[in-house]
Amino acid sequence: MSIRHGLLALLERGPRYGSQLRTEFESRTGSTWPLNVGQVYTTLSRLERDGLVEQDGEDGAGHALYTITEAGRAELKLWFEKPVDRTSPARDELAIKLAMAVGAPGVDIRDVIQSQRRHTVKAMQDYTRLKAQALTALESGAERERDDVAWLLVLEQLIFQTEAEARWLDHCEARLIRLSATAPRDGAPPAPATPPRRAEPGRAVSRPGA
Amino acid sequence: MSSPSRSPQQSQPNQPGQPGPHTVQPVLQLQNLTRVHGSGATEVHALRGIDLDVFPGELVAVMGPSGSGKSTLLTIAGGLDTPSSGRVIVENTDITAADRKTLAALRRRSIGYVFQDYNLIPALTAAENVALPRELDGTSARKARREAIAALEEMDLGHLADRFPDEMSGGQQQRVAIARALVGDRRLVLADEPTGALDSETGESVLALLRARCDAGAAGVLVTHEPRFAAWADRVVFLRDGAVVDQTIRSDADSLLTGRTAE
């Protein structure tokens, strides 16, 4: 799992203590997936139980230091080599929502699509602005360069993901319009193409499901 | 006219000198813009009552499916086409009411275009291309060249000054086209799918330049169907069937990442 391997990857660079691991994990990933110290220590004790890390003394301030074991290095190597599984996709709320919106009474699927599109494009704008900042930071300073590169990669992943979603939404809308143009008059489930204006609250335009 | 698609953000007072939340005047104002092609049975409403203000320092992206009116909006905003009704105000001049001479001068002095296929003149160098609108506007050749070089250098394109279009990559040509669009005092740039012919990374560098010019005070309108490029804008306006159906409003990016605000 990602926190486990993330911590192993940081420990491969040398002994570290818990809150230090948390700080380094977050500066790599830009706090996109915030960790609390509790999670870090729980994960460390599991890693220790599995023989992948061990406690190895304290630093000057009395923090318990952890180091990676040989078994830990082997596990980490395997993680980098093995692709992340994509064959059993996580449940996606948006896909489920659109699937349910097809033919749902009282729901204008184009409005569902548009409100999601606004939200998704907005998130892309925010990520893009953060990315521009990250690029500036990379160009100006050399000190935390490795972390800046890591953060940039994470941001770009978020941008590509939201872009894929925005494109998929465009595609859904186009397909629904095409289907409703060719659909038989009364029958088949494709959603209606609504007039080019925003739905008033409560306006039900969807056909009852066939 | 009031339509539910109208955004409250756009209802700024537009008269010069009128006090309001914005002391800065928009560079471009579109007011209740409509455009009808044909008549009778073949009538097509390309634009249906568009309102849009673009302020200095702002980059606005216009998105929408093909046929939604994006390009019509841009050509009317730039005075290349006339609306069926409504007003287009550029730097406080109503170009829909202007005579031909005023309009031509305004197009030379105030409005810059960037097209998908760069539109640089092949027989002229980068510097000559950028200098051209200034020369057409009556600036001496020497001064126009000086301004062109300055514009290119400001955008880190000084090394391209003496190259001809066919000696530049697509991305370089497009960046020169942006320099041309904003040479002199011009601060309105209208870009129609400027990244359409470029690969993704080059397209991004073109957008970064456009963004930087807007951060430096220009006003930009970007028509694109690529969400990743639209995401460089401050505001994204969604068109559908000739009307604004929705738009994003700029927020504090840091609020997006909960961890960051806590630190």
How do the strands and helices of this protein lay out in sequence?
The complex is a heterodimer of chains A (210) and B (263).
Chain A: H1 2-11, H2 18-29, H3 37-49, E1 53-58, E2 64-68, H4 70-81, H5 93-101, H6 109-140, H7 145-182
Helix pairs in contact in A: 1-2, 2-3, 2-7, 6-7
Chain B: E1 28-37, E2 44-54, E3 59-63, H1 70-77, E4 85-90, E5 93-94, H2 100-109, E6 111-114, H3 126-136, H4 141-154, H5 170-181, E7 188-192, H6 200-215, E8 219-223, H7 227-230, E9 235-240, E10 243-247, H8 258-262
Domain Transcription regulator PadR C-terminal (chain A): 91-176
Region (Disordered) (chain A): 182-210
InterPro entries (chain A): Tscrpt_reg_PadR_C, Tscrpt_reg_PadR_N, WH-like_DNA-bd_sf, WH_DNA-bd_sf
Structure description:
- The complex is a heterodimer of chains A (210) and B (263).
- By secondary structure, chain A is mainly alpha-helical.
- Chain A has helices at residues 2-11, 18-29, 37-49, 70-81, 93-101, 109-140, 145-182, and strands spanning 53-58, 64-68.
- A two-stranded antiparallel ribbon of chain A has the order 1-2.
- The radius of gyration of chain A is 24 Å and the shape is elongated.
- With 263 residues, chain B is of the alpha/beta class.
- In chain B, 30% of the residues lie in helices and 22% in strands.
- Chain B has helices spanning 70-77, 100-109, 126-136, 141-154, 170-181, 200-215, 227-230, 258-262, and strands at residues 28-37, 44-54, 59-63, 85-90, 93-94, 111-114, 188-192, 219-223, 235-240, 243-247.
- In chain B, the strands form 2 sheets. Chain B has a 6-stranded mixed β-sheet with strand order 6-7-8-3-9-10, with helices on both faces.
- At the A-B interface, helix 6 and helix 7 of A face helix 7, strand 9, strand 10 and helix 8 of B.
